[in-house]
Amino acid sequence: MQLIESSIIGLRSARHRMASGSKRPVVTLFPMVHIGEPDFYETVYAQACKADVVLTEGIQSPMVRRLTRSYRWIDLENLGLVLQPRFPTPPPGCRVLNADLSGDEFEAAWRDLPLWLRFAAPQRSAFVGLRHRLRLSRQSLVSGVSSLNDKASRASAFEWDTPGYDLAGPIRRLRDDRLCSILLGLLEENHDREMSISVVYGASHMPAVLRLLRTYGEYRPAGSEWLTAISL
Questions:
Q1: Cα–Cα distance between 137 and 144 in angstroms, integer?
Q2: CA distance 180 to 57
Q3: Of 194, 160, 149, nearest in space to 26 by CA
Q4: In the chain, which stretches have pLDDT less than 50?
Q5: For the residues of 23-50, what is the DSSP string, one character each?
């Protein structure tokens, strides 16, 4: 199943509505990229807020800010792009849950990584951020992201996003596990009632969500739509 598509027309994200014949809740996946056009985020958030529950990501940690300099230092205004904004206050009837690690949990997992990686990843992030600041264009930004499906390598798809991402696999798996655990809890608690759930989370975590949905309730696509994150 295609999640992200990089092509000559730009970078697109595939919104997938997933339904099961035996379970009542409907789950809509919004694979996110962390840099895009303002209209992309407005559209995603408006659609996601139509659900009863929205699962989002976000880790409050000084180290996370250092690791994400590679895209926060991009001259986004000149490119007509923005960083992914915080999820807005939802309308009545919609509940937003952070399905990510806490800052303390991230810091504890970070301390368990090899020392050389903890030293190298922030340095590389700064180097990549400066290079992007000087040379990045919309074309190079889009071409630097490989298309992603639920079986593709997550590291190769997002090399420009978070340096050291693949090397920090244990943290990635912890985040996958936290997201899937919260989603599974919602599905089990509401398996026999009408309910809608939106998952607004980094695209690289969606393969884990799809595996959960297929295993738990044989969920299948019930409608998909391409949303343009960056147009060329």
A1: 10
A2: 12
A3: 194
A4: 153-167
A5: ---EEEEEEE-SEE-HHHHHHHHHHHTT
Determine the Cα–Cα distance for residues 227 and 35; give it in Å rounded to an integer. 14
What is the amino acid identity at position 181?
Answer: S
Please name the residues in contact with 94: beta carbons below 8 A apart, sequence gap of 6 or more: 49, 50, 51, 52, 53, 54
Taking a C-beta distance cutoff of 8 angstroms, is the pair 5, 12 a contact?
yes
Q: What is the pLDDT of residue 148?
A: 65
Distance CA 79, CA 6 (A): 17
SS3 for 131?
A: helix
Question: Which pLDDT does position 113 carry in this prediction?
Answer: 87
- pTM reported for the whole predicted model: 0.90
Residue with tokens 């989002």: 56
b/e 82-97 (16+ beta carbons within 10 angstroms → b): eebeebeebeeebebe
| β-strand pairing of 53-56 with 196-202 | parallel
Cα gap 37→60, rounded to integer Å = 24
Q: How far apart are CA 198 and CA 200, in angstroms?
A: 6
Cα separation, 193 vs 205, in Å, equals: 26
pLDDT for 20-75, tens place per residue?
A: 988 889 999 999 999 999 999 999 999 999 999 999 999 999 988 888 887 788 88
CA distances from 105 to 65, 101, 111, 134, 175 (A): 15, 6, 10, 34, 10
Strand partners, 14: 226
